[in-house]
Amino acid sequence: MAKRQKVISLILLLIMTLLAALAAVTSVSRYVFDREDVITGSFTNLYFSHNGSGRTVIMEEGASGYTGYLSLTAYNYDGGNISARDISYSVRLPSEGEIAAGQVVDAWGTPIKLDNADAAAATRNYTRVGFDSGKDSSTITAIGSDETLMPNETTDMLKIERSDSASAGSLTFDGESIYLIIEIVKPYRELRPFIINTSTSLVSVATSAIDTSDTHFDYPQYSVYVQTARHFSTAVENVDVASPVKIELSWSSSSPVIFDDGRFAADTADNIVRGEIPADDEEWDSVWNVTSSDGGVTVTLFLEQGSDALLYFYVTDPSSFGCTIKAWFHCNKGGVYSAEQYTLIAGAASDGKVLETGIS
Q1: 228 phi/psi in degrees, rounded to 5
Q2: Would you call 76 helix, strand, or coil by DSSP?
Q3: Does residue 276 lie within any of the structural domains?
Q4: Quick check: is 96 in a domain?
Q5: Does the pTM exceed 0.70?
Q6: Contact, 241 vs 232, CB < 8 A?
Q7: Residues 156, 56: contact at Cβ < 8 Å?
Q8: d(CA 185, CA 88)
Q9: Where is pLDDT greater, at 248 or 6?
Q10: Are 260 and 311 in contact (CB under 8 A)?
Q11: Does residue 93 have a pLDDT over 80?
């Protein structure tokens, strides 16, 4: 009898163990088959701009070719829109394959034409472009959330090298137009070709109209970028290479043109200060000043060799205005100082015109 009860107990124990195992399997099965993994993705618009297009780079000849420098500022905004993402980018020349194909292809497979055949061909004469600081990328960071985004910008110095082989030939004042590519690598890959100009001039100027949230009481903003060569030794006879070059930017308009002197003073505080303009027969110092009149403004700069100056102007009547540039090098002949005008300014017309709209 006792033995029979043990057998029954053992059978019941086996049945309970089996039921427990079945329950456990059922529970796990429900967990596995009832669970739903939902994967979501989001795509944010990338707002990015820069001031490189149309700029003229001064190229200076060396032992094996030419070298030039471009101060490039990139922004995490375009118009009134600001990116909600961090942006990392690099700058390069188009590859031989891209030049041959006449296009670059972005990460989505979309071709972007290199429409200027002359610029594409001239790009072959250039051997390298990179960040002069040794970096191969830069980062722009957007600050805050969607409600508190702020515009940011970063400025880097690019070093551009050109060979002087038999196929490339010697570079002239007129220079060349070439392609560069900004390659965005974060948050996703995107390619943006743009064209710059090169020249052997000792002074270059470039302008661009920027429509951004950073306007002056909604007036259109124009930037003027002035660059000087790193060596003045071939400027004019008897040039004083230790002296800065004198630059005048003169605006005329049917209504006031405003120079953002506060912004310029803050950007150049460590290099050039606002001061009295020295006379031609005096020694020249690195100073700047501004004079205004009805419908016009003139900014005078005394820039050292290897200078980059970025100035911002606000035009109250964008339908009628003009801007001209003039330059003088300081000469010292037997202790007698004088100024000799320099007219080979890259980016300006022969009469010094830089911008003109609606002025006869």
Answers
A1: -115, 155
A2: coil
A3: yes
A4: yes
A5: yes
A6: yes
A7: no
A8: 6
A9: 248
A10: yes
A11: yes
* Tokens linked to 347: 């980016």
Residue position matching structure tokens 């029954």: 8
181 and 214 assigned to the same domain: no
CB neighbour list of residue 348: distance below 8 Å, 6 or more residues apart: 205, 324, 325, 354
Q: Is residue 63 part of a domain?
A: yes
Q: What is residue 133's three-state secondary structure? A: coil
Q: Which of 31, 47, 125, 142 is nearest to 86 (CA)?
A: 142
Which tokens belong to 7?
């057998």
The closest alpha carbon to 87, from 72, 75, 78, belongs to: 75
Domain C-terminal end among 152, 175, 200: 200
Task: Please give the Cα distance from 131 to 140 (Å, whole number).
Answer: 15
Which tokens in the block code for residue 217?
């009481």
Q: Which domain holds residue 146?
A: 43-200
Distance in angstroms (rounded) separating the CA atoms of residues 167 and 124: 10
Whether residue 55 is found in the same domain as residue 194: yes
Structure tokens at 331: 């000469």
CATH number of residue 101's parent domain: 2.60.40.10
Are residues 277 and 161 part of one domain?
no
Q: Tell whether the model's pLDDT for residue 330 goes beyond 90.
A: yes
Q: Are 55 and 197 in contact (CB under 8 A)?
A: yes
Name residues whose C-beta falls within 8 Å of residue 147's C-beta, 6 or more positions apart in sequence. Answer: none
Give the end of a domain, one of 145, 175, 200: 200
Token pair 């943006």 in the structure block, residue:
192
For CA atoms 89, 93, 94, 95, the dihedral sign is negative
